[in-house]
Design brief:
Blueprint (H helix, E strand, L loop, with lengths): L6 H14 L1 H27 L6 H6 L2 H5 L2 H23 L1 H8 L3 H37 L10 H28 L2 H19 L4 H7 L4 H8 L11 H25 L3
Helix pairs in contact: 1-7, 2-5, 2-7, 5-6, 5-7, 5-8, 5-9, 7-8, 7-12, 8-9, 8-11, 8-12, 11-12
């Protein structure tokens, strides 16, 4: 009988690691505060200043997108948490013990990815639905236009906001596998999500139109926007492209882990 742990055993072990580390709970709390808290803050500010908005701004008001503003900030928390799930083991040296206990490195990557997917898919959906619901309650109380989960377009936007955050968590984890150092991983992650889009804004508009739609942040915006922009893919195409990015980074990270020493 083989002493090598099965994928299920490894997954249980990794879930135990995740839920017994204080940083995981602090990170998840930050994740919740950013998503729901920002939705609450934005909706209160919009409601309080509604009478001062121009007629054009009132017509352009999108109750769904504004309620998901917190996702912009939560995307950084999700990526950092995903990255730290592996880079913290490199930092402490625990990765050697982990790899000694789980010699099948692909199993280790799959187990960690399963844990992150399960935890963050549930957490992401909970916080995006909570943020949406809180914002709509405030808009409704102040007699503003509201969105509704009974509308398929609005429901899709909220659901895919959670999918977007889940994918970013796994991308952060994959980058952590590749780069192994928390600071470098976070720097690369932030550069991809925030710095590159800023740099691209300095290029000609015609060039921007062809490139920006492929950026993760723009893919996420398309996935959780009720309206289709001419400068982005449809929500379905955007979700597929982001899923491809996620799988590609995870595969690259798995290959890197398999081919080098801890």
């Amino acid at each position: 009988m083989s002493d090598t742990p099965s994928l299920m055993d490894t997954t249980r072990s990794e879930f135990l690691k995740f839920r017994t580390v204080r940083a995981s709970f602090i990170g998840l709390a930050t994740f919740v505060v950013l998503t729901v808290g920002i939705a609450l803050l934005i909706s209160l500010v919009i409601s309080a200043n509604w009478s001062q908005r121009s007629a054009i701004d009132k017509l352009a008001f999108d109750p769904v997108t504004t309620s998901l503003t917190g996702v912009f900030f939560a995307q950084f928390a999700s990526g950092v948490l995903g990255a730290r799930f592996i880079t913290s083991e490199y930092a402490s040296g625990a990765i050697r013990t982990t790899l000694a206990a789980v010699p099948r490195r692909v199993h280790l990557v799959l187990a960690k990815a399963i844990v992150l997917f399960a935890v963050f898919f549930v957490a992401s959906e909970v916080v995006t639905f909570a943020g949406f619901s809180v914002a709509q309650m405030i808009y409704r109380a102040n007699h503003l236009t509201t969105g509704s989960l009974s509308t398929s377009v609005d429901l899709r936007a909220v659901v895919f906001a959670g999918v977007f955050l889940t994918c970013l968590t796994l991308i952060g984890f994959g980058l952590g596998l590749l780069l192994r150092t928390t600071s470098i991983t976070i720097s690369v992650y932030v550069t991809v999500l925030l710095i590159i889009p800023i740099i691209i804004n300095f290029f000609p508009t015609s060039w921007q139109d062809h490139v920006t739609k492929y950026l993760p942040a723009n893919l996420g915006a398309a996935m959780m926007s009720p309206q289709l922009s001419t400068r982005s893919f449809s929500w379905g195409t955007s979700a597929i492209i982001l899923a491809i990015y996620t799988v590609a980074v995870l595969v690259a990270g798995s290959v890197a882990l398999s081919r080098r020493d801890a």
